Amino acid sequence: RDAIDRKEKRSETFKTAVHGLETGTSALKTEELGRRAPQWVRDNLVTMCMRCKEPFNAIMRRRHHCRACGYVVCARCSDYKAELQYDGNRLNRVCQECYVFLTGHVVLEDREGKHKGILEKGAAEVSGRSLLCSSLQLLDKSGKGSTRGWFVIPQDDPLVLYIYAAPQDVRAHTSIPLLGYQVRDLPQGDSRHLFQLAQSRQVYTFVADTEELKQRWMRAMARSAAGITDPEEGEDADS
Question: pLDDT for 13-67, tens place per residue?
């Protein structure tokens, strides 16, 4: 009974879990898994396994695509085989979640019941219902180096800025509670559109790609810093 309940729950969650953002991929309906070839999530849109959230680095550098849902996963999370109807019922490499769904087999390591931490909100999930999301650069303390990432203020957590390394990552690498911060406009330097978040001695300096995008972020952050949680009228949910 427990195994059946888990399988039914996966059937419901797959309807929203298998989707694409910034890739042009169309959503795969639950009943289409294994019957229709998925469009793969591009490698450069993720920096970590989309299942276990372990980062891809020099040690764990191998990336694989699940042939059922198209997610980018590590070798450990794709160490499963399932027959896929669209490939003549031949065995293909799939992720653990697709393996359980397609075969009905239960694996010993099941993370589904694990409670999601504050950073374990997928970028695609929160960007789809955000107050604002886009790519920005975050300058280091020296002001000379910068890191480009994917920044999101979710509708269901409008007082927090989530920072992802890439727009398809399944875990944010950090978050900034915006309440109480001051938003500062900075003169344009070296054709860069600069602005800051400041509170006491903590200062974050951002670089937007355009002046229009900079102004949108400044408005959104100022509203969150003031505790205003309602979406600004006329403001798009993404960039």
Answer: 344 334 433 333 345 666 788 999 999 999 888 888 888 888 887 544 678 899 9
| Tokens representing residue 208 in the block | 């937007």
- Tell me how far the alpha carbon of residue 229 is from its chain's centroid: 22
How far is residue 145's CA from residue 142's CA, in Å, rounded to a whole number?
7
For the entire predicted model, the pTM comes to: 0.55
Strand extents, DSSP E, 76-129: 80-84, 90-94
Contacts with 87 (C-beta within 8 Å, 6 or more apart), sequence order: 37, 67
DSSP letter, residue 74: -
The token pair that represents 198 in the structure block: 């400041």
Q: Where are the domains of the chain?
A: 30-111, 123-226
Report the amino acid identity of residue 130. Answer: S
How far apart are the C-alpha atoms of 148 and 6, rounded to whole Å?
Answer: 38
Overall fold of domain 30-111: Herpes Virus-1 (3.30.40)
Contacts of 42 (CB under 8 A, 6+ apart): 23, 168
3-state SS class at 21: coil
Q: What is the per-residue pLDDT for 12? A: 43
What is the dotted CATH code of the domain comprising 123-226?
A: 2.30.29.30
Of the candidates 153, 149, 179, 189, which has an alpha carbon nearest to the alpha carbon of residue 166?
A: 149
